[in-house]
Amino acid sequence: MSAGHTAVTDQVSDPGATEAVEDELVALEPCGLPEHPDCGIRDVLDRLGDTWSVLAVVELSSGTRRSSELKRALHGVSQRMLTLTLRRLERDGLVLRTVYPTVPATVTYELTDRGRSLTPLVQQLADWSLRHRAAIAESRREYDRATTASDRA
Amino acid sequence: MSAGHTAVTDQVSDPGATEAVEDELVALEPCGLPEHPDCGIRDVLDRLGDTWSVLAVVELSSGTRRSSELKRALHGVSQRMLTLTLRRLERDGLVLRTVYPTVPATVTYELTDRGRSLTPLVQQLADWSLRHRAAIAESRREYDRATTASDRA
DNA sequence: CTGAATCCGAAAGGATACTG
DNA sequence: CAGTATCCTTTCGGATTCAG
């Protein structure tokens, strides 16, 4: 990155900057669990739900990346979904997008503080997935074998 | 669930029972990150991605639940999605389904060991979501306000 | 009570072609 | 290189209805 001079970061302002204390459990006043429909937990979880968000955060957790680098790291991602995913992460204040006014456009992405606060969780998810993916695949085969042939029990 | 005598659990067999060591980081040999397409991480993450799986796991983390109880706990869920969600979790070996041969059918769901190993992660996700949802909502408003009016910088 | 089946609208997401 | 727009297919997921 060095030579960037007039890079344009998509800093709209500084929303939610006062969230500061990242390591203090919230009170859960309105609703503590899924009992409530409009609780808003799903709004956030849905972001982790789409196909590429988690992988993008994992990749960005090791440092700033260019768009093309992310494209390669996320492998099967289409240009469209890459952009959409990063836009949503940026919109949520998890990722900072910086545009360098170079000849062939240069754009970098990096995690914000909020995004970094999510890193350990996302890393654990990736670890868990890797640790269990074989057993899960086996469970699925078993399940399918037991259900397709005859019906269950 | 006291009186159950001949309850039928959907035990197909015991696939992946030898995964045992739940607290040892995996080696990540084949591929450590999203670099690889057929790595299989997404197969697992996708399960966390759908709308109700995480919420179901959270609810089941506090104990065995009947179908109707889950239906109420997950609030807006439709009968169809409740069944689908639980079936997928069962297929992945995260949830155990038990049918009691009572007059009006009785079915309970509970986490398996594998499902329980996921509980802390899911709980952290829920916590994180609650802790940040306000700030994220604010970021979204800011972002939308800055982009709908004029185009970005 | 629990769940399977059908119908159908709404998204997610890939492929491609086109701009700066 | 980075991103937008369009098209098109697949899946998600709700509503309803029927069955054990």
Structure description:
- The structure is a homodimer of 153-residue chains.
- The first copy, chain A, is of the alpha+beta class.
- Chain A has a domain at 51-152: Orthogonal Bundle (Arc Repressor Mutant, subunit A), CATH 1.10.10.
- Chain A has helices at 41-49, 53-60, 67-73, 79-91, 113-148; strands spanning 8-9, 65-66, 95-100, 106-111.
- Chain A has a four-stranded antiparallel sheet with strand order 1-3-4-2.
- In chain A, α2 (53-60) packs across α5 (113-148).
- The termini of chain A are far apart.
- Residues 12-38 of chain A have low confidence and may be disordered.
- At the A-B interface, α1, α2 and α5 of A face α1, α2 and α5 of B.
- Chain A binds a DNA duplex (20 and 20 nucleotides) through α3 and α4.
Shape label of chain A: elongated
Oligomer: homodimer
| First-residue to last-residue Cα separation of chain A | 61 Å
Helix content of chain A: 40-55%
Strand content of chain A: 5-15%
CATH topology value of the domain at 51-152 in chain A = Arc Repressor Mutant, subunit A
CATH superfamily placement of the domain at 51-152 in chain A: Winged helix-like DNA-binding domain superfamily/Winged helix DNA-binding domain
Task: Assign the CATH architecture of the domain at 51-152 in chain A.
Answer: Orthogonal Bundle
**Helical run tally of chain A:** 5
Radius of gyration of chain A: 20 Å
Describe the biggest sheet of chain A? 4 strands, antiparallel
Task: Describe the structure using short key phrases.
elongated, Arc Repressor Mutant, subunit A, alpha+beta, 5 helices, 10% strand, homodimer, DNA-binding, 153 residues, 48% helix
